[in-house]
Amino acid sequence: MKRAHVVNEAGLIVNTIMVPEIEDGMYDADLYGGSIGDSIIDDRVVPRQPESAFAQQKVAYFAEVRDMRERLLNRLAGIAMDYIAAEPPEQLQMRALYRSLRQSLLDITTIESVASATTLTELQAAVKAEYARLVLLANTQSQTFVKAFREVDE
Length: 154
What we know:
5 strands; three-stranded antiparallel beta sheet; two-stranded antiparallel ribbon; 2 domains
C-alpha cells in the first residue's frame, strides 16, 4: 500500500489515504511530502502559512463578540415581545427598529470597519464603535431598546 494525497480543485491537500497504486490525479505522499492543509502547485508542495498572532486573537475575540451578540439578541427579542400587544403605530415603529438593530448585530463581524481591522486594538475599537452606533440609533428612536445594551461596556 502507498500513501496518496487527495487534492481539491484549488490544489489544497484535503486528505491523505492509503491506496494499492498511485494513479493519475493522485500525488505520492512519500515522494511529495506535505500534509493536510498544504497545497500542491506546479508539482511541488507549498506549506500552509501559520496563522498570525492577530488571526488567533481575532478568533478568540469574535467568540466573545458572538457571545455578547447572542445575549443582546435575546434581550432585544424579549423587549420586542412587549410591543406585540401595543397600538399599531407604535408596534410598527418598534418592529422596524427591532429589525434594524437585530440585523446590525448579526452583521457586526462583517462590517467594513471590523473586517478591515489589522490589530486587536483596531478590531476592539471597531466593534465598540458599532455598539455605540446601535445605542445611538436605539436612543434616538426609542429609549426602550437602549437597556438591552447596558452591559456592553462592563
